[in-house]
Amino acid sequence: MASKLTDKTVAGLEAPTKGNRRVPDFGPDRVPGLNAQVTAAGLRQWVLRYRFHGVETLYTIGDFPDWNVKAARTEARRIKRLIDQGVNPKAERDKERAAPTMVDLARRYEAEHLPGKRPRSADEDRALIRDYVLPAIGKMKVADVTREDVERLHRSITKAGKPVRANRVLACLRTMFARAIGWKYRADNPARGGRDGVQMNAEDGRERFLSEAEIARLSDVLARHPERITVALIRFLMMTGCRFGEAATATWDQFDLAGGTWTRPSSHTKQKRRHATPLSAPAIALLTELQAEATGPYVFQSPRTQRPLVTIKTAWARITRDANLEGVRVHDLRHSFASVLAGSGASLQLIGSLLGHTQVATTLRYAHLADDARRAAVERVGAVLSGNGRDAEVVELPKRRA
């Protein structure tokens, strides 16, 4: 046998007819327990044989020639130092390999967390995970993801011209890692916010209110549109200011048409709270007409699937184009409902109540519209009291009883 194990001698090792052949390291630089191994298929590897707590273990360092003799010996010495410190390297490697990846976290998140969210929100999270999270960091171990990895993903989506989408991905990751902590996958949240965390992109609140002229154009187009249920749903959104999902999943048992009320169960609202609102006469008339021809439990039921309408994107795009309302979203009908309320003098408290807001801050976006109504009222009073209000509307106050 040669006096020294070299890259040349390892490359020239003859493969066995079956099984493995191991040649111990030898020579002046040898590492006890290190072996060059060749399989019957000709695969050459470096393995380290060691004993830990009396149990003999074989640890694979890597393949030859990716690992040459010098590199294999250096790694073998490092591993032996770990063994001397009471660490079982093979057990640690097996533990590392078994550690959950981001794919594993995503699967558990979808199975255990998303069923508790509203369907549309759950679908949104699934899309974010599928389109952004998994392609970028899906192969990483959950415990190995760093704040820098999250920042890099957030930054790349932002640079692609999708700053709001980047924020949604970040929010989704924050929740995923929060659940990962609870599931003992890791101890911290690399997507956290705060001074030392990952910062959201600034978002300009988008508030689009339809003017009276735009509402008139939309109504004209709706009168000519052939999809009757879609038109009815849009008109209902305009009359109630509700969210699309709340209307689309509405069932007849939620309505008291005689009493003029609509009571949404907590499972159908964004706030997870029961919400009862009054219905206007036009809304009641619309629902009465639909109910006369109803064939199922859903108010806005697809005539093809007998299920509630899932989306009206195609029809809405055509309707807004014909009404010259490019860029207007279905959700803008909700803002327009609130703007009409504010313009009529309704208080922010009343607006929030009708829209189903649970946070005052949510309703404050309409404060400037309410200010316009109050300013107009003040101007009318000023005109009367200054003597310049001959044409101002004067309302006689009821006389107080003695």
Descriptive report:
The chain has 402 residues and is an alpha+beta fold. The protein folds into 3 domains: 7-98, Integrase, DNA-binding domain (Double Stranded RNA Binding Domain); 102-182, Orthogonal Bundle (DNA polymerase, domain 1), CATH 1.10.150; 212-376, Orthogonal Bundle (hpI Integrase, Chain A), CATH 1.10.443.10. Helices cover 47% and strands 10% of the residues. It is built from 16 helices and 7 strands. The protein has helices at 7-11, 69-84, 89-98, 102-113, 119-137, 147-159, 163-182, 212-224, 228-240, 244-248, 281-291, 313-322, 332-343, 348-355, 360-363, 367-385; strands at residues 20-24, 34-39, 44-52, 55-63, 255-256, 261-264, 275-278. The chain has a 4-stranded antiparallel sheet, covered by helices on one side. The protein has a 3-stranded antiparallel sheet with strand order 5-6-7, with no helix packed on it. It is elongated and about 110 Å long. The N and C termini lie far apart (126 Å).
Descriptors:
7 strands; alpha+beta; 10% strand; 3 domains; DNA polymerase, domain 1; four-stranded antiparallel β-sheet; 16 helices; three-stranded antiparallel β-sheet; elongated; 402 residues; Double Stranded RNA Binding Domain; single chain; hpI Integrase, Chain A
Question: Which SSEs are present, and which pair or pack?
Answer:
Elements: H1 7-11, E1 20-24, E2 34-39, E3 44-52, E4 55-63, H2 69-84, H3 89-98, H4 102-113, H5 119-137, H6 147-159, H7 163-182, H8 212-224, H9 228-240, H10 244-248, E5 255-256, E6 261-264, E7 275-278, H11 281-291, H12 313-322, H13 332-343, H14 348-355, H15 360-363, H16 367-385
Antiparallel strand pairs: 1-2, 2-3, 3-4, 5-6, 6-7
